[in-house]
Design a protein that fits this description.
Layout: H1 7-15, H2 19-28, E1 41-44, E2 47-50
Length: 51
């Protein structure tokens, strides 16, 4: 469930990556890791699961 009131927080988390997160996402995007697909964020109830 993606709560609308969390939209700004999710957007901020995606935009302001740590250096480690940025490196990880460069490696993961485009299926470069065994052609597996990854989500950057996933909402579970009131929580946002994020790298």
């Amino acid at each position: 469930m993606n709560l609308q009131e969390q939209a700004n927080l999710r957007r901020t988390l995606r935009r302001e990556l740590t250096p480690a997160e940025a490196t990880l996402w460069r490696m993961l995007k485009g299926g470069q890791l065994r052609e597996l697909k990854f989500r950057r964020q996933h909402s579970v109830g009131a929580y946002i699961l994020d790298f």
